[in-house]
């Protein structure tokens, strides 16, 4: 399934291309002059094949070239190891080639913003199934469409996640988002009456573009090689682009 959208969004003349491949979803969004042109599919094995055509599609529809951009953005994880590597390395290559800054956005944060836009909830808990009996967990308070992490994002067992959510939110109602809640029912069952699920459990380049636009306005663009994946597990190594062929 592929979804195309042109969404209204407050903004100025900033032009940012955002990509995400960290989970089963594969998405590209172009933020331009207060609008977002986007394409997305759910294709766990098709990220490498789909990203470049999607990028070409949104650029053509917007009448832009890579050189017209102000920055490139990407979801930098956590998620599947392969998907996160694809997302970050492709964004690095695009930013290097266009000589533009790169902005990395944590996917859990982008998911929280998407859930907040749907439900209006002030508090959102993002949980991605991390396999091996664990979840990637983020707990956010959202004000003016900006998620703020209430604790550092972590990879943890579902039972420990319940403790972290309970201790952080202290009985506050929240929206849940992410595949972790479906995979581990204890996450929802432990908060019956306090949790309401979002309808879309995957991150999207739309929110990555929106968050990146705010970061760019604050001067937080980086040299492409300095934007690294967020794996949260300690046993995963990553080389910068400049080191990958050494």
From TrEMBL:
One cellular component term from this protein's GO annotations in UniProt: cytosol
InterPro entries linked to this entry: ATPase_NBD (IPR043129), Gcp-like_dom (IPR000905), T6A_TsaB (IPR022496)
Key words, A-Z: Cytoplasm, tRNA processing
Pfam families: TsaD (PF00814)
Keyword Cell wall biogenesis/degradation: no
Gene Ontology biological-process annotations: tRNA threonylcarbamoyladenosine modification
Keyword Manganese: no
Similarity section: Belongs to the KAE1 / TsaD family. TsaB subfamily.
Listed NCBIfam families: T6A_YeaZ
Protein name per the record: tRNA threonylcarbamoyladenosine biosynthesis protein TsaB
Organism: Ruminobacter amylophilus
């Amino acid at each position: 399934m592929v979804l195309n959208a042109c969404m209204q969004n407050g903004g100025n003349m900033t032009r940012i291309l955002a990509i995400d491949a960290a989970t089963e979803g594969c998405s590209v969004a172009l933020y331009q002059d207060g609008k977002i042109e986007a394409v997305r599919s759910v294709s766990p094995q098709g990220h490498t094949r789909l990203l470049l055509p999607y990028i070409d599609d949104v650029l053509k529809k917007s009448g832009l070239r890579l050189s017209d951009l102000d920055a490139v953005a990407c979801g930098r994880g956590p998620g599947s190891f392969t998907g996160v590597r694809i997302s970050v390395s492709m964004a690095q290559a695009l930013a290097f080639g266009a000589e533009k800054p790169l902005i990395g956005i944590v996917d859990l944060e982008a998911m929280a913003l998407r859930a907040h836009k749907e439900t209006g909830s002030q508090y959102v808990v993002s949980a991605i199934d991390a396999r091996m009996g664990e979840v990637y967990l983020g707990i956010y308070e959202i004000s003016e469409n900006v998620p703020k992490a209430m604790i550092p994002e972590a990879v943890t067992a579902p039972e420990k996640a319940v403790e972290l959510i309970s201790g952080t939110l202290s009985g506050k109602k929240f929206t849940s988002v992410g595949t972790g809640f479906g995979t581990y029912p204890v996450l929802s069952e432990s908060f019956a009456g306090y949790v309401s699920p979002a309808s879309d459990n995957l991150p999207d380049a739309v929110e990555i573009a929106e968050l990146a636009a705010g970061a760019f306005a604050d001067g937080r663009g980086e040299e492409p090689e300095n934007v690294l994946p967020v794996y949260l597990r300690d046993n995963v190594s990553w080389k910068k682009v400049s080191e990958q062929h050494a």
